[in-house]
Amino acid sequence: xxxxxxxxxxxxxxxxxxxxxxxxxxxxxxxxxxxxxxxxxxxxxxxxxxxxxxxxxxxxxxxxxxxxxxxxxxxxxxxxxxxxxxxxxxxxxxxxxxxxxxxxxxxxxxxxxxxxxxxxxxxxxxxxxxxxxxxxxxxxxxxxxxxxxxxxxxxxxxxxxxxxxxxxxxxxxxxxxxxxxxxxxxxxxxxxxxxxxxxxxxxxxxxxxxxxxxxxxxxxxxxxxxxxxxxxxxxxxxxxx
Length: 241
Prior knowledge:
It contains 6 helices and 7 strands. It has helices at residues 16-27, 39-51, 66-79, 103-128, 152-172, 206-217, and strands spanning 7-11, 31-36, 55-60, 85-88, 134-139, 177-184, 227-230. α6 links the parallel β6 and β7. The chain is globular and about 45 Å long. The termini are far apart. The relative contact order is 0.15.
């Protein structure tokens, strides 16, 4: 499906997977709203997308804050139009033994990885329902299928994100709204330090995830890709335990 002229909102778009997704969708002809807390970094990514011939605009917002999400979506609607696609990519990683995990850190991880997706999805659905079309994509993790040690907060947030995706897909199907989750394996981002020391078969570039999201976004409106996994072929995912 031709995405030219459609509006996409990408959260966590100032770096890593989010930045790659924003550039890829802009190159596909979409009008892309980049959302994150750092306006300077967002502006730099938006400038890259525009230099490649795309349409991109930066919106500074903390997507864990209800008021800032509502304000950002109102501004995007005014500037670019109603969203056709929402990519919930905002997230952080955490590796803390359970006995050392504080309640404050637990809540921080869930707010960024899960509550932000709820707030942005709710805002998007409110705009998509009257138009009877729209697609919501979550950037999850293979940790929702096979956790790693000392990641209780992160793993719980990604399992919950899967549940939120299924609920939105169910509630939205009578209104032309689809929802799906993309579960990446190890990608070269600043989310997890040290990945640059891994070989090419154990990590992948953010652009690989962006290509998959573009493919899903370009599916016919009546088709939903509920869940998918993308990972380096050498990552110890299959058979690990």
